[in-house]
Amino acid sequence: MVTALWQYENARKAGQSGRMPVSKGEFGNQWYEKQLGTVDEEIARLATICQIRMLDAGIIERVVAGDESVCGRRTPKAFRQLRSLVGVHYSLTSDSLQSLGEDESVRILTTIRERLGKRFDIGGDR
After folding, report:
1. Burial of 10 (0-12, 13-18, 19+ CB in 10 A)
2. DSSP assignment letter at 17
3. Dihedral of CA 39/44/50/53: which sign?
4. Per-residue confidence (pLDDT) for residue 3, from 0 to 100
5. Nearest to 79 by CA among 62, 55, 92, 94
6. CB 52 within 8 A of CB 60
7. How confident is the model at residue 90 (pLDDT cuts 50, 70, 90)?
8. Using CA atoms, how far apart are residues 106 and 101, in angstroms rounded to an integer?
9. Residue 42: alpha-carbon gap to chain centroid
10. How wide is the angle at C-alpha 50 spanned by C-alphas 46 and 52, nearest 5°?
11. Residue 23: CB partners within 8 Å, gap ≥ 6?
């Protein structure tokens, strides 16, 4: 995960899109599932540290806006990392939608959400 995030950040800073050139097919599906799974697991872990139920109504928007009052426990470093990773999640999801299409992207995200929902209190209607 660290390598993928480092590559993404360096490409973004260099003015490139930071997108991984993947095509449709099994490799693309596996790549996005691994990347999104890794990022989303870290989001769930950081949200747990901050005592945030990420999938409850309006919470993600407040995190993106930098509203630390959403935290049940004040942990500024974890909140900053969480907020940054939500941006990475959105970028990967956007790329996945373009590369794989809506149906496959939704399948990947649903699988990840179900898996993480068993390990973390992520909120939302499960």
Report:
1. exposed
2. -
3. positive
4. 43
5. 62
6. no
7. very high
8. 9
9. 8
10. 95
11. 99
The rounded mean pLDDT for the chain is 85
Do 44 and 116 meet the contact criterion of CB atoms below 8 Å apart? yes
pTM higher than the cut 0.85: no
Residue with tokens 């490799």: 27
- Note whether 53 and 121 are within 8 A (CB): yes
Query: Cβ–Cβ contacts within 10 Å for residue 33, how many?
Result: 19
What tokens were used for 106? 């939704």
Quote the DSSP letter at residue 21: -
- Find out whether 55 and 122 touch, Cβ atoms under 8 Å: yes
- Chain position carrying tokens 């996005």: 32
CA-to-CA dists, residue 87 to 26, 43, 80, 82, angstroms: 25, 11, 11, 9
* CA 106 to mean position of chain CA atoms: 13
d(CA 63, CA 52): 9
Contact 33, 109 (CB under 8 A): no
